[in-house]
Amino acid sequence: MAPLGTTGTEVDKMMKTIASVLAAATLATVSLAGAAVAEPSTSLTVYKSPSCGCCGGWVDHMKAAGFTVTTKDTDEMDTVKAMLGVPADMASCHTATINGYVVEGHVPAESVTRLLSEKPKAAGLAAPGMPMGSPGMDSGGASEPYSVMLFTRDGGTETFQRYGQ
Ligand SMILES: [Cu+2]
Description:
This protein is an alpha/beta fold.
C-alpha cells in the first residue's frame, strides 16, 4: 500500500465525516427550533442573513415588545425557509420560530401575540415581501397598507390581520 494512497483515503474519510457532522448540526438546529416544545411563549428564534439590516430592526421591535430573541445568522435562508415550510409566495427576509409556529418577515409583535393566544391550526404567520412601514421597515418614514397572512403546511393562506388601512 503506497503512503500517498493511504493519506488520500484518510483525508477523504475525514472530509466525509466533517460534511456529515455539519449537515447533522444544521438539521438539529432547524428541527429543534421548529418543534412544538414547551418553551416560554415569549421566546423567539430568528434566522437571518448576517448582513440584513431590516431584520435587526424587527428583532429590536420584538425585544421592545417583551419577547426574548435568539438570533441565528446564516447564509442559508432558502434552506431554512424550505425546512420550516414557508410557502414561496409568503417569503420575506428573516424567518422566526416560536412555540412551534413560524413567523416569516416583518410581522408586528401584536399579531404574534394574537397568534400565541388564539393558537390557530396553522404553520405560522407571514408579512410577505418587505412592506414599507412594518416593524423594521419603518426607518424611512414611508408606509403602505399590508396584510399579515396565516399559512398552513400545505401552502394554504388567509388574511390574519391588516395594517395601515
Ligand atoms: Cu426585511
